[in-house]
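Quick one, tokens below. Sequence please?
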């Protein structure tokens, strides 16, 4: 496995602060985002590299492992356990502890768990496989209803059921779909992080939705019925006479589905924005002047 310099990918130094890492990641993620670079395989590859680098360096524990073990950072715990085991064996056999300075971690790992392993069969120490991390990009409309999707992880197709109401940044665990364990140890897990883009006119706030609609001056003053779009269809609203700009109404149960709560939805909040008429005719101006005199 070739060494990947995550610091170089993000364009930062090894002493970069968490703030520096976050700033560099956001800048590059925007630059190479698939929505801004459709059908660009190079940008897609760069985007994945940037996300991978951020996942490692933005996590203090993973960053420490990466700084110490380099390309083998994912096996840090196995290395530590293996070193402790070998030190114990040498101590019990020779009365001395092993010296590991100068030995490459990958070579050490091979010697511990390859053909030269001092134990085999049921006496061999079992190690859990490493966890996998993946990021799934979806549109807001994709998570309005529960649906199935197939992901390819490490060359294997995994069929997932994505529940309605998944939130942006939410992480779910798929047990046993990480790397295989060592010496028949248990497999690691797969962690999927959801990155949800919103291209709709609705703003999401947990399970609630917010939308602003234009209301004609005449409708606001006199009242009446209007038809508006919700996330899953149209509804008719009754406008009260003398409705003010910024007034808000709540449509119960017309928001976003609640995560893993079948049939339960948040609310939709509709704000009114009074649209002032333009390009008035001479007659309209005259009528407004008459109204002004009456007021």
């Amino acid at each position: 496995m070739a060494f990947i310099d995550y610091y170089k990918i993000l364009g930062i130094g090894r002493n970069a602060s968490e703030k520096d890492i976050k700033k560099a990641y956001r800048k590059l993620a925007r630059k190479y985002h698939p929505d801004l670079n459709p059908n660009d395989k190079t940008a897609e590859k760069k985007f994945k590299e940037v996300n991978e680098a951020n996942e490692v360096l933005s996590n203090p524990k993973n960053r420490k492992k990466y700084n110490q073990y380099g390309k083998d950072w994912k096996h840090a715990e196995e290395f530590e356990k293996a070193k402790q085991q070998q030190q114990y064996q040498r101590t019990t056999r020779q009365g001395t502890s092993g010296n590991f300075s100068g030995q490459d971690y990958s070579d050490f790992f091979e010697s511990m768990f390859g053909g030269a392993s001092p134990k085999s069969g049921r006496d061999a120490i079992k190690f859990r496989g490493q966890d996998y991390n993946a990021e799934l990009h979806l549109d807001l409309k994709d998570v309005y209803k529960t649906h199935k999707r197939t992901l390819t992880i490490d060359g294997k197709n995994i069929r997932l059921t994505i529940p309605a109401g998944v939130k942006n940044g939410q992480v779910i665990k798929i047990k046993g779909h990480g790397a295989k364990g060592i010496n028949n140890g248990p497999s690691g897990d797969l962690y999927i992080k959801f990155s949800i883009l919103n291209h709709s006119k609705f703003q999401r706030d947990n399970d609630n939705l917010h939308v602003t609609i234009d209301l004609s001056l005449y409708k606001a003053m006199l009242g009446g019925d209007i038809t508006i779009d919700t996330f899953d269809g149209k509804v008719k609203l009754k406008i009260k006479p003398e409705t003010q700009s910024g007034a808000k109404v709540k449509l119960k149960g017309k928001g976003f589905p609640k995560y893993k709560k079948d049939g339960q939805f948040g609310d939709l909040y509709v704000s009114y924005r009074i649209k002032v008429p333009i390009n008035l005719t001479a007659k309209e101006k005259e009528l407004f002047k008459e109204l002004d005199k009456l007021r």
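Residues 127-198 form a domain with the HSP40/DNAj peptide-binding domain fold (CATH 2.60.260.20). The chain has three domains: 71-116, 127-198, 203-294.
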